[in-house]
Automatic annotation (TrEMBL):
Residues 97-248 form the DUF659 domain. This is DUF659 domain-containing protein. One of its GO terms (cellular component) is nucleus. One of its GO terms (molecular function) is zinc ion binding. InterPro entries: DUF659 (IPR007021), RNaseH-like_sf (IPR012337), ZnF_BED_domain_contain (IPR052035). It is found in: Nucleus. Keywords: Coiled coil, Metal-binding, Nucleus, Zinc, Zinc-finger. Residues 597-624 form a coiled coil. It comes from the Eukaryota. The keyword Transcription does not apply.
Length: 649
């Protein structure tokens, strides 16, 4: 920190406590004097605390007229007596709650009010909600199943989190849990239209069985997770691309290493010469550091071989072209408001890319893998989501079997299983839609700013049967990303430093955090982030979200009961003066992402084995059962289903 100006030194108390790498903590001397004078003149105030009786570690700074005692911040802001005295000075009639009250009665009352409001909103959703759940292991090695409910408008609500550590995770237990959740929601008069889970073997097996017994509910895998697995299949089928990615991570780590400043500066010069700007190098995975003395400016042989390899740059350019649409489509599908027509169009666009790929052998293998996934899904409802979109209708389809007559029969099927009634006018309404009779004309559609769900809610007032089916189709959430965000938030609070917190308290805090964050996002109209590469876009979105959530996290942290905190904290303090000696471990970075890819490949193997077992065990069970997910007449080849598609992003 730069020396304080002479005029400020008279009014500032400087300490040795660092608040970041470059700055130290300072205090305003007149403010502190005012607080202590107020304390001495108001000894009868019950809010004043006896400073001499405090036993916690503190630090003192002597001045000519007063003694300043700075308390450790680990006990929370609300218990800091200086904060209490400041608020007493500002408002003598204000009584601040302590951390126990905030983390106890106040937190419980706030969550109860939030739960009541949540149940009311879910009950008012007449179209039906989407239930998503997934498992997670917390810092205490407890296996938690989290449940998030998403309304047809795309609003997520955290329902509950259950400790299932003592239970087996087979399809039987998953089916029992699913039935319990559905029964609980039914008792609360909440309609369920869809259930979305991940692609683990137990969840896949339970979906295949429950969709037969509960036809009124649509069972889907998380399509965002499915696309992630498709990315893993690229590296499983092509060892060249996997090797290229490992080399790229190693190269990026080298140019992010602070010990390689000479080569970093040379890279910046080249960037300015070629692009007239500097681009930040990003490498995936967590970065680990270790101290190492500075090295000579010598380019390592393996790095030199990577840079000078023409094959490496050829493969990396191909890999960018391949992964870019995957990442862009994945961004679309991770949104809470992603719709089914975006799923089928995104997947068809990826197949279209592979169909035009130069390596026909690799393309054929990956297309076959995508077709196998597509075959397992409930295709009629996905195709209907495109047909019932006023902007697409039948314009996108190439297959002659996709027409209003064929899909009209499936509209009648869905209306019957969702309402328990036989349709009386749905085909007539579909014909009006085909003829673009009001309100199905383009002028009406253009007034809804591409909000397909609101459009069909408007239409359903006059087209009851077709409107109901369309609203339900476009009201289904297509991913379980909200559950992943719940785990991320719970992991932020339930960390190694707070590993004795109960699950119920962590869940309550995250419920409030989710409500506050959602309301902030609705109030703020932020512009769309556009960057040159998908990696930079993901990093920018993550950075902006972190900035937005910092204020919320700091507020919620005050509610934590410090009696639940552990005294043993395992963390490393890095001296900023030695920062120049730190080095990014290049091998660790490359190995971390390699392990991540290996996890993808393992998940693909598990999924394949589960799929084979299900086919062997269910051939007899599913005989003579008609369901759109297993009906051979409701299966189309995705490669030939669509015409040439434009980019969906």
């Amino acid at each position: 920190m730069a020396p304080l100006p002479f005029l400020l030194e008279e009014y500032i108390i400087k300490t040795d406590e660092k608040i970041n790498k470059c700055n130290v903590k300072v205090y305003c001397k007149p403010c502190i004097k005012k607080i202590f004078n107020l304390q001495n003149n108001n000894n009868t105030n019950n809010n004043n605390l006896n400073i001499n009786k405090r036993k916690e570690t503190s630090f003192t700074s002597e001045t000519s007229s007063s003694k300043v005692i700075i308390r450790s911040s680990s006990y929370g802001v609300m218990d800091n007596y200086i904060v209490q005295e400041l608020f007493t000075f500002l408002n003598p009639f204000l009584k601040l709650p302590d951390r126990r009250l905030l983390g106890g009665r106040i937190l419980n009352e706030a969550v109860n009010d939030s739960n009541s409001w949540m149940i009311k909103n879910l009950q008012e959703d007449q179209i039906g909600v989407t239930v998503t759940f997934d498992g997670w292991t917390n810092v205490r090695n407890e296996h938690i199943m989290g449940i998030v409910i998403i309304t047809s408008e795309g609003r997520p609500y955290v329902w509950k989190a259950i400790d299932i550590s003592s239970e087996h995770e087979t399809h039987i237990e998953v089916m029992e849990k699913t039935n319990t959740i559905l029964e609980e929601l039914n008792n609360n008069s909440i309609k369920v239209c869809a259930l979305v889970t991940d692609s683990a073997g137990a969840y896949a097996a339970s979906r295949r069985r429950l969709r037969i017994s509960k036809k009124s509910i649509v069972f889907f895998p998380c399509f965002a997770h499915q696309l992630n697995l498709c990315v893993g299949e690229v590296f499983k089928e092509s060892t060249e691309f996997k090797t290229t990615l490992d080399k790229a991570i190693r190269l990026a780590s080298f140019f992010r290493n602070s010990n390689n400043k000479f080569f970093i500066s040379k890279l910046k010069e080249i960037q300015y010469e070629e692009y007239n700007k500097e681009s930040t190098i990003v490498s995936p995975g967590e970065t680990q550091t270790r101290r190492r003395p500075g090295e000579d400016s010598i380019l390592k042989r393996d790095i030199y071989e990577i840079i000078t390899s023409s094959i490496f740059w050829q493969h990396i350019n191909q890999l960018i072209e391949i992964l870019y649409p995957y990442c862009k489509i994945l961004n679309l599908l991770q949104s809470d408001k992603a719709r089914l027509h975006e799923v089928i169009q995104g997947l068809a666009y990826i197949i279209q890319i592979w169909n035009n790929f130069s390596d026909e052998y690799l393309a054929a293998k990956l297309i076959a893998r995508i077709e196998r996934r597509w075959k397992e899904w409930e295709q009629p409802i996905l195709i209907l989501s495109c047909i019932l979109h006023p902007e697409y209708r039948l314009k996108l389809f190439n297959n002659r079997n996709i027409n209003y007559v064929t899909m009209g029969s499936w509209l009648g099927y869905y209306y019957h299983v969702w309402t328990g009634k036989h349709a009386t006018s749905i085909l007539k309404e579909l014909d009006n839609y085909r003829l673009e009779v009001y309100p199905f004309d383009s002028i009406t559609w253009n007034q809804f700013n591409n909000d397909i769900y609101r459009y069909w809610c408007f239409v359903s007032a006059s087209m009851n049967e077709l409107g109901f089916v369309a609203c339900r189709i476009f009201g289904i959430c297509v991913n379980a990303a909200s559950v992943e965000r719940l785990w991320s938030c719970m992991g932020f609070i339930h960390s190694n430093r707070r590993n004795r917190l109960s699950i119920s308290k962590v869940l309550n805090m995250n419920k409030l955090r989710a409500d506050i964050t959602y309301n902030h996002r609705r109030q703020e109209k932020t512009p769309i982030v556009t960057v040159q590469t998908i990696i930079s876009e993901l990093e920018s979105l993550k950075y902006n979200e972190t900035l937005q959530d910092n204020t919320i996290d700091n507020t919620i942290n005050n509610t934590i009961d410090n009696t639940d905190l552990t005294d043993n904290e395992n963390f490393e303090v890095i001296d900023s003066s030695q920062e120049s000696e730190e080095e990014i471990d290049e091998d660790t970075n490359s190995g971390d992402f390699g392990n991540y890819l290996q996890e993808w490949i393992s998940m693909l193997e598990d999924e394949k084995e589960a799929f084979i077992d299900l086919e062997e065990n269910e051939n007899e069970e599913l005989e003579n059962i008609i369901h759109p997910a297993i009906n051979s007449n409701a299966k189309w080849e995705l490669l030939s289903l669509f015409k040439e598609l434009n980019s969906p992003f």
